[in-house]
Structures are given as C-alpha cells and as structure tokens.
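Narrative progress, year one. The postdoctoral researcher (J.K.) led the effort to move from monomer predictions toward full complexes, under supervision of the PI. The following entry was the first complex the group processed end to end, covering 1191 residues in total.
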Amino acid sequence: MAFDENVKTEFKVVGTRVKRPDGIDKVTGRALYGADFNAPGMLVGRILRSPHAHARIVSIDTSEAEKLPGVKAIVTSADLADPEDDFFRDIRDNCLARDKVLYDGHAVAAVAATSRSAAKAAARAIKIEYEKLPHVTDVDEAMKPDAPVVQAGRSDESVPEGLSENVTSYFEFGHGDLDAGFAKADKIIERSFKTAATHQGYIEPHACLATMGSDGRGDLWCCTQGQYFVRTICSEVCGIEATQLRVTASEIGGGFGGKTTCFIEPVALALSKKSGRPVKIVMSREEVFRATGPTVSSSSDVKIGMTKDGRITAATAKLRYQGGAFPCGTVEFGAQSAFAAYDLEAVRSYGWNVLTNRPKEAAYRAPGAPMAIYAVESVVDELCQELGLDPLDVRLKNAARKGTLASYGPTFNDIGLVATLEAAQAHPHYAAPLGENQARGLSCGFWFNFGGNTCVSLNVNHDGTVGVVEGNPDIGGSRASISMMAAEELGIPYEKVRTVITDTNSLGYNDVTDGSRVTFAVGLATIEAARAAKREMCKRAAQIWGIDEEAVVWEDGAARPSGPNAGEHPPMSLADIAAVMDQTGGPIAGHHEVNADGAGVSFGVHLVDVEVDKETGSTKVLRYTVFQDAGKAVHPDYVEGQMQGGAVQGIGWALNEEYIYGEDGRLQNPGFLDYRVPVASDLPAIEPVILEIPNPGHPYGVRGVGETSIVPPLAAISNAVSRAAGVRMTELPMSPPRVLKALSGG
Amino acid sequence: MKNLHVTTTINGDAAEFVCEPDETLLDALRNRLGLTGAKEGCGTGDCGACSVTLNGRLVCSCLVLAAEAEGAEVATIEGMADGDQLHPLQRVFIEKAALQCGVCTPGILVAAKALLEKNPDPSESEIRYWLAGNLCRCTGYDKIIRAVQDAAAEMRSA
Amino acid sequence: MKYVKPESLEAAATLLAAEAGTSRILAGGTDVLVQLRSELVEPDLIVDIKHLDGLRDIVEENGGFRIGAGVSGAQMGEHAALCAAWPGVVEGAELIGSTQIQGRCTMVGNLCNGSPAADSVPGMVAAGAVARVHGPDGERDVPVKEIPAGPGKTNLGKGEFITSIFLPARPANASDAYLRFIPRTEMDIAVASAGVNLELAEDGTVSAARVAVGAVAPTVRLVPDAGAALVGSKLDDAAIAAMVSAVEAACSPIDDKRGTVEYRTTTAGVLAKRAAHIAYDRAGGAK
C-alpha cells in the first residue's frame, strides 16, 4: 500500500476547534499540578539561600539545626554526586552552591522536616560563614578587564584576547562585503540599546515530590517541561542510574522555557535519600524570582545602511548578553536570528556571552531572539522615519523568502514572511486613523523552531478506540492537537482518541517540550505511528479476506480491497478489525521513534497602536494585531492562544517587566507586586490572524507556533512609543519614568 | 505553637480541621482538607490563583488565616459544578479555549462567577478590571474575557 | 503565635497592652498576612477585631459618616450615600489592591500599615477625617493626618487601636477626588498620589480647598499652600499653576525601584491638577 509523500492539505479533524481532553479537570480544580500531589509520611523540604551577591562559603554548620524537633535531614552540595561534564556540574552547583555563592538567592543548604514551621526553624539554625566578594550584575561592567570575576577559567577558545574572564564565548555570523555595502547607503544609522532581564513568570512555582528508597530506586513527581531531561539531570547530579529513577510530569502551570532544567529536584531526592521518607519541595514566589529563570539582559549596537528607496545595503549587530553566574549559549541564537527576516548582501552579527552575579538564565520563549530583533527592527524603523518611507513597504522590499541565504547560514525553504507582511498591509488596522499622542508601530519576528527526539506509541483497543502515549508535557493544549492528528490519520472521530503523557520508564527518550517542537515533532511521530497501525490493520484485513496485503488500502477510516479485488469485500473499519484482533494475530499498535528534522522556521508581524501620556510618561496599548504563519493550524484556538499569549508577554517586557538590582547586588523586586506582568485591564483585545504556508518538513504542513509571537512586541511597541513621543527609545522596559525622562530631553 | 480547631462550612458541607495559628486558609484547604483546586501562585495576594469566596465575598485565601474560617461559609472551585453539571462559565471556558496551562483557571472561574452574581451584564472593561487581580501568563487574557462575556450572555438568556 | 478573638474593645486593648512581644491587629488582614508570609514580621499575638459590634458598619452621624475599622473597600463602594458625599475618599479606598483584596481590606488597616503610598489616606486627610482611637485609657478622637509617624510607623500608643473613621458633613457644592499614578492600570503601589477636597461658593469659586499628596514624603502630606492657591479661583490656569508649584515644593520623596525623586515630584503635581479638576466638576463647578 502507498502513503502520500506530499504534504496533506484536505482535513476532516485537523483545523477544527474541538474540546480539549483535560478541560474538565482544569475547570473543576481536579487537575494535579506539581504541588498537588502527596505521599504518606511526606516531609516538607526547605532551601536556605544566599543573602549575598557573591561570597566564598567559609563554613556551614548544621549541628544545631539537626537537633531541632521534627528535623529529619539536612543536605549541602557535599551530598550530591560529581558529574564529569561541565554542563551537569553547573546544574549541580546551581542547585546547591559548592565553594562560592554566585548570586542573591543561590541555594546553599536544604532541610527536610515534619512541618513547614519545623523546616523554617531548622533553616534558620544553620550557621553559614561567608567571606563577601566584589560583585558585578551589569553586562557591560562585567566585560571590562578589571571586573570582579564570577567564575574563573570558564572562557572557551572562541573568546578574543583582552576581555574579562567573565566573557565565556563569542559568536560571529554573516556574509558579504560590509564596507562596500555601507558605501552604497544613502543613510546609515547606528544606535545602542539595552534590555532588562525578564522572568518567564509562570503562575505555578516549581514543585516536586521525591521518594528515594534505600535500594537506590527513586520516584519523582514534578512540574517540568521535560521529565526525561529531569531524569538525566538527576541521574548525573545524584548519581542514580537512569532506569532506577522514574520521573512523572504533573500538569504544568506554565513554563515558557523556565521549566526545562532543574532547581529543586536533585535536592529533594538527596533529602529523601538521607531521611528515608518522601520529601516535597514547593518554591515560594520569591524563590522563583531570585533563583530560577530569568532571561538574559542585553546591551547591543546595531548599524544599518539604507538607500533612499528603502533597500538595506549592509547591516551589523553587536550583541552582549549576560546569562547570570554560569555559562550559557543564548547570544548565539540572538546573533543568528537578528537579521533572519532580511535578504541581505552584506551582513554580520557578533555575540558575547557574559557571566554576572545573577541567577543562571533559563530559556524563555525564543531565547535570545527578542532582544536582538528589537534592536534591529528599531533601527529599521528609524531609517524609515528618516527617509520618509512606509515601514511595511521597506520590510517587503527586503524580506527573506524561499531561496534567500539567511544571515546565519542556511538557505530558506518555503517561508511565510512575505505572506504575513502582505496580510498586515491589507488589514484594516494598518490604515486605521490615529488620534493625538497616538502612533502605530510594527515589527517582524522570527524563530527557528526545533524538532528533536520523539517517541510515540499508538494502541488500538478492542472497542475501536485508540490510545496515544507520548512523552511531552502538555503546556498549551497539545494533547488535543495530538489526538486530532491521530484521528485525522486513522479516519476516526476525535472523541475516539485519548492521548496521555507518560513517565520516563514507559516510553523511549523524548526531548523537552521546547523550541515549539511538540505539535510538529510529536505530531509527526503520531502520524507515523498511526500509519504503522494502519499498515498492520490492512494486513489483518487482507488475512481475513484471504487476499494479498498489497491489495488493501486504508481510506476513510477503513481497510478496503483495491485493484482487482475492489468491491469484492465490504470495507472493514478500525472498530471491525479491532474487535477481532485477538483472532488475527493479537494486539495492534503503531510506534514511531525519530530525531525529527525539518521543523521549518516561523515568521510573524505585529501591529500595535499606543497612546503616550506626555505628562506622566505612561503608555496605553490601544490596539494589537498579530500575523503569524502556522504552517497548518491543527487547533486554531490554541494557535491563536500562543499568538495572543506571546504578544502579551512581549508587551510586559516592552513596558514594565524588569529585574532590578540594588548597589548591594540583591534583587529588589522578587514578587508580582513590583515585577509587573500585564494584568487584564492593561490590555486591549489581541487580534490573531493565522497564515498557513505549509511546512514541507511535516506530513500535514505543521510548523511550531509557540515562540515567534514574543519576538516582535518589543520593537513594535518601542517603534510606536518612539513615534508617539517624538523621541527614539533605546532601552527596555519603557517604564513611565524612563519615557518621561526621554520626553524631557533625557 | 498550639494548634486550633476550626469548624466551618465548605461548599455547603460542614467541615472541621486543625491548623496552626499562623496557617492560611489556602494551606488549610489544600493540606488539611485535600481541596487542591485553589493554587498558591504568590502567597501575597498579587496573583489571584487562590481565589475563593468567604461569606460571599471574593478573597485571596492566602490572605485569610485558617482560623478566620470559624463559623464562616467558604466556597471553592470544587463546589462550582452542580454534580456532573458544569457551571456555564466552566463549560464555556472549555468551549472557547479560555485556558492553556490551566493553573490560574480555578481562581479566574471563582472570580468571574462572583462578578456575574453582582453584575450579570458587565462590559469588557468591567470584566478586565474585575479580573485584574487574577494573573494569567499563557492566554493574554483575550479568550478569557470573551468566554466570560459569552457565559454571561448565556446566563442572562437562561 | 497566638490568635485571639476578644469579646470586647476593652478586652482587645487589655490583650494588646499586656503583650510583651510583637502584636498585630487583624481586620482585613491584607497587609498582616503578607508580612507573615514573607516572614518580615513574626507576631507573638494576633488580635482579630472585625467581628466586634459596630466595626463592620457604615453609619450616618451628625450629617457625616462613621466607618468601622472592619469595613472593607468593597462595602464602601456599595454604600450609595457615602459614594455621593465622599467620592474621592471612596475611590481611594477602592484602589487598594484587586477585587479580592477589596473584599477584605480596610481604610483603617491601610492607615495603620503606615505606608506613605497608602491609597486611602490622602483622600481622608484632604477630607479632614477623624480617627476614633480605643486604648487602655478609653477613647480619643485624632485627626487622620496625625496618625502616620513615618514609613511603617504610627503615633498610636501601646495597646491603642483605631475603631472607626469619621467623615464630616458636607455643604452643598462640595466634592473630592483622588488619583494615583501606577505603571499598570491595577495591582501596584502608588508612585505618587493626590487627594483634593473642594467646597464651592454659589458662583463656582472655590471657597475652601484641601490638597493632600502621597508617596512623595515619609508620610502622606497635607499641603496647605496648595489648597490656598485654589481658594477664590475657578481653577484658572494661574491658580492651578500656583497649586502645582506648592505641591512640588512640598514633595521630598525617595529614589527607589518604583520611581525617581524627579518623577514622583512631577507626577504628584500632575495628579493634583487632574484631581482638582475632577473634584471641581463633581462639586458642580462651572468655569
């Protein structure tokens, strides 16, 4: 039998707005998140954290704490294993500091006790002697040769001579002759920008429940974007064989990249091992802000040359990202994505990764891209203003399209940038009138999208229903999308499929739910698993009919004889075949294991109208429209939800969200009161416009949609505010004091 | 610290629990009574994920002492459906995809129900301001606002 | 920590006076619980007073209103006569926190928390509100403006607590307004704020004015010069400019994560100007 090699374009289930399978659990309070699970005899874990930005740990004395009533275990870094790889050692040292505390909030010790109050008393009784060291929290300061060194000896061979040891890696991308390109320009603008570190801001704090037996077998329940990766980390950091640790992902209360690593899980396992009892650790919101996430903060210089008619002749971007106290690679993504939206003859981007005394950055939705594209799109907008050009015309004139050599190396296949730009140009929003102190801004956005390691099992049940087993936590409705693709491929109703997310011992390795990979890669594996099951069902039907299995095809949810036998036997539906499977060879299942390629890059364009109060510097977002290419929108509601949610996170980033450090290197705003995420009354409707330019790398044309939407808001809003205020803004967030200062001439 | 014995009413049923004097109502609901629908997102009244009603008033249960529940009537997300009949808000939230991760959803539903009991026909702006104390980081609020409007319209015509 | 629900005001005062350690009064609890949770304050005694007689009531008294210490912001917003007489005081109380906080928070708690940025206090100070204080020596009445002593501090004595706030009777052609600036639309602490209380003569000129500002000094500050600048005017540009100058001159804020000295000072003037216009319109003034 033959299966379509080409991308499918006609659908029955995919593209509809079915109800999500976890809906009732989530609207009734029944869904179990990280902190909602308990075990008999469970202890309360609590982590003691550094009050200093940078200090040597001289001694840790736990003797008094150990004597307190209800205290069952105390652990420090000495209770963790010694992984060979730097990557895992860094995670270990972030979970519990080893020789030095590297930032305010860095974990130093942990206790397990019979109650919250007993754990609190014990944590206070632990005596730690520190020797304070000079600290640095600003990226530009940290790069100076005489800056305090956060960690020595961590620079790799890419780093040019003469920089502080805090610079750990350097990247460069691009092509063409820059000098020749700038010489052709009628106007060149060069500007410097800064963006603050922002936090993912998921509403559910990290939580886990660990049980470690004296036989070396463990069970871990936690909120994570990737239970397999948690297992890998805990195996390395706690010295447990992978198969001995079963990790089950709870429902997850938001992650946005921030739950792709471990902060508390190895600590809970160590406490459980030492106490012989289950241990639950739930972070407070303050701990979440001080010691998890955030994204990098950035400092950058962008230079672009343009002709009078709007053609970009050359462009450079120098990006400096600080990712906290441990090496990170985020600036590589920034340098790669900075100019991805443009078809350029001469382009170069440079990136420096820098250590500071701040929490280790964690992935945050399109990590590295928003701050780079913010700077580039700001300069493009200013060039449009200076040259009197329409900003959408200029984007269209320079837009990357199929065949464009991307600034970071590859040549683009089918991409949707031009289609999204044209949709924005044709939308009524672009022509709507504006009032006094109001202006419109726009920006392009880009994200690579990932595929990666993925396993799916699809089991046919006797009653004609189908169970799909996958290994990626559902962060935004993916169980619905996966069930829809299984139903589509099998030709059965959506309601006949149930998708569950399994633990680490029940399916092969799956990469983390990140990189906008799940609907693409798990979807692809699900379709392939369904195809395997269909092949088996065709074989069973052939056996029943006594004909060649090549003479059976699967159409409309049933096996049908084809060729010379067509019409000779009535079709057998999935339910018909399932009912008799015990007699035809036993259980029917399909599997697919893949390291998925071909994710297909994603582009979006955002339009925003703002009004600036020139007396207070306050910005009001009046209207917002998101245009994005989804490849194929499997469940349009959840695609729209990603577009709207990303836009609003970007609005927060542009206007108010920031990590604020004092002179003492301590975080001043570790709570939702002063770390200001957008609230419902801050926002207008966010109108989503889905474009569908099929991704040739997926059987249904699907591309990831989760991340691109956070990229354009930074520049779109900055461009709008700059135009409304009549002064170019170059620093995020554009908080009211900052805008008022710019209005009064800086 | 001597524990306190509290007699209260939760979702219409008599309930009793023992708590520490400084324990919050949220902790008592979650850890003493097994009602984990209310979530702790911040512990400081800034996120609304722990919303319940106390004697008919919408409150953050993280900012109520468990001891204050003595003799009071508490309503939580677990009491919102009538048996297997979802409240219209619950049903419309599913139909209109007004949730993604779902962790803020119980608090938002409890808050939205309190709004519609006070004002059956709120404007979009009134809904946005009423729900300003309920943070949602996934949806951008858009589909939540539409779902509350749709449920309100349905309830008015019922 | 002990949690106690005393049976009378006297019993509450006795308990508070006798406590050697740290004590806290619990009414709305929206500040006390945050302090507990963040482990900033670990009281030895919590005295819950909101159940006591009269503390949850709003009653008309001598043409004005007496508002009990346990009355929530939401309850004030639901009281039509209070809203008509003192819209600025009510909008200040209703700006404290979210809908959820409104179900519990009280003006008295907001006042006694001692924050210079407390939203309900500028409105009360501009209104000339009077607090009734209960203590070991009985009752006394104290103008609200004299209660705050500095950030987190009040002038109340050991064992003393406030049982109600009195807002005086209003003449015709009088009204008030309160505005604050926050970076978002909700859920923040005021960066600067202003309450303006006006009485108008029959021809629409201002006959009496009180202007109070918040978050720009260690305590909420009444600015007599700002009020005086408005008296005799119909809020013409010159009068407003004089008032704004007086407000700015009265500001001595701090630089912090919420705003700079310069920003707070400028914004306080802007808010006072806008609040004055709102109060004037509400009072029936015609320019």
